[in-house]
Amino acid sequence: MSKQFDYLDELEAEAIYILREVAGQFDRPALLFSGGKDSICLVHLALKAFRPGKFPFPLVHVDTGHNFPEAITYRDNLAKQLDEKLIVRYVTDTIKAKKLQDGKGKFPSRNGLQTYTLLDVIEEFEFDACIGGARRDEEKARAKERIFSVRDEFGQWDPKMQRPELWNIYNGKINKGENVRVFPISNWTELDVWNYIKREKIELPSIYFTHERECILTENGQLMNTNEFIILEADDVIVNKKVRYRTVGDMTCTAAVESEAYTVDDILVELKVAKISERGATRMDDRVSEAAMEDRKKGGYF
Amino acid sequence: MDLLRFFTAGNVDDGKSTLIGRLLYDSNSISTDIIETLTRQSKTTGINSDIDLALLTDGLRAEREQGITIDVAYKYFTTDKRKFIIADTPGHIQYTRNMFTGASNANLAIILVDARNGITDQTKRHSILSAILGMPHVLVCINKMDLVDYSEARYTEIENDYLLFAKQLGLKDISFIPASALAGDNVVTRSDKMNWYTGPTLLNFLETIEIYETKKTEASRFQVQYVIRPQTKENHDYRGFAGKVVSGNYKKGQRVVVLPSGIETEIEKIEINQREVEVAEINRPVVLHLKDDVDVSRGNSIVPIEHLPRTEKEITATICWMDNVGFIPGQKMLLQQNSFRTKAIVKEVISKIDIHSFMELQSDGSMKLNDICKVLIKTSEPISFDSFSENRNTGGFILINENTNNTMAAGTIN
Questions:
Q1: Helix, strand, coil proportions of chain A in percent (round to 5)?
Q2: pTM (2 decimals)?
Q3: Considering only alpha carbons, which residue of chain B is nearest residue A287?
Q4: Domain count of chain A?
Q5: Sheet holding A129-131, edge to edge
Q6: To the nearest whole angstrom, how far is the Cα of B221 from the nearest Cα of chain A?
Q7: Do A114 and A254 fall within a single domain?
Q8: What integer pLDDT is reported at residue A214 of this predicted model?
């Protein structure tokens, strides 16, 4: 017998199985890559699923223009190092071309706007499946979504009409114009992801680890880094803190957490005592309403 | 640490979502910001004064509005002993298909019974569905014990009733726990009001139950998902068959047969993550290389020569109809079994199963949403399979509507 088959092996096997199903069932799949830890794990899993062959899909990034520079550098290096195709489309271009209203307010979010760019890039390359790193433990609407989530021509999710999904049988049959969003790490939790990163010794962008950063301390106690997109006001409380990021979204809507974690092991220790959920700690966009995520998904969001 | 997947069946009225909420809450698996949200929501929609734990699992707007579970919600928690995946499935009959979705990957069913009502039609239906899906373990959680004065007599009565009913179902392993999810009795902490009960608490049970591994005794099975052919200079002749060992194991040098073609060959090399291994164990995603240059494509099975599955173009199966549109006799469809797909047709609806009595009734040839029927299916290409009761990994399939692409039905081969 080889070593014990544990829960990480089982989650890994499930994810690889799903990736290979995508490769087997679709003509033009894509892997949505953000530079965040979840999509970095997806790339790692794709290596295990398809090497020595090339990925049967390109990496696609919807660049909001508000991304952390560390994540962008990581993205470009990774694609080069793996010699895989990377497609980048910019929300800034979509705003110009479609004459859209850019995010407003103190923390101008492009979260809603990136759906336009995503749907455009799907149409441009006629992608029939888009693989994403979303997890069901992140949010209660995501907890309801299938692993193969069929979207109509407008990218919309209909939670009441989801296809039954049994055993290891994934029905990816669609009509032209529709597409399937595929979530291979649906069943992973934040802690699972970190345990996997540790076990597989996966490299991450530096902002996941503690560093000094100048931040605005917001009214509800969140730490937002100061940057060119956030309008500073006279009464803003500016602090210098040792922080890290639990998720890597846009600079305008992702908060940092105070941390002394220099290594993945340190992060695991922190997470075990963390009292606040990942999205709760770091995302401003989910706080809009109880059904914020459900509504965005119905609109074509991931 | 291993992983236990279980599902819960029962209505909100039985306290199902409350039970899951209790399990997560008492095992410290809920973050403070989620509890804050819940407290806020509970004030407006909740039934209880402080926190309505049911609101934890009902993630869709419509569910919160109506106070029912419509679709499966997946919840996760970890203790020192195990990682758990809960599929919280709807109890209402009109959402049976969603219950099937949540239950299909589980190893354990938790069936909730309201101690006041005892065994109901719904209990029977959920047990029958568990039996059809070949659930290795069933736990009957007799809930709301606080409302029957924690009576041992009542508990024993329900236990006996259930065992009497379940005899015909062929469930392999049935356990019982008396509990009150609302009050927290015997969910995570032991109740001091039921000293007559000496068994484990629910969490204790979940942490220690030995997961029945049917797979260990089953013949080796592998289906090709994807053919890896790099066609580069250094890997010019590389042709690897990627897939997962769903039961048994494969060894280098083993004689195998490719199905449905029936061609015999030998396993030349086994790779896991580009590393060569001697044996491919169960559940591992692997790449197999065959000695001879035979025709193998996605959906083909590679099986040991001494343990062949059945390979036929006609199967009888028990299917659950899952589409809003009923069955149309003569309609062409696709049958998908893991990565294998073929055209198929339902030749005959043999009988309909009464989901409250498990009796086979005469069929009028129709199949409507949530009907469970025995059918005869003819496929255009031969399908390699084991009966579902022998191997859950090769005996299950879905039927896809060729026109709408919807999953119309799910079936288990007899």
A1: 40, 15, 45
A2: 0.91
A3: B37
A4: 2
A5: A86-90, A59-63, A29-32, A129-131, A179-182, A148-151
A6: 14
A7: no
A8: 85
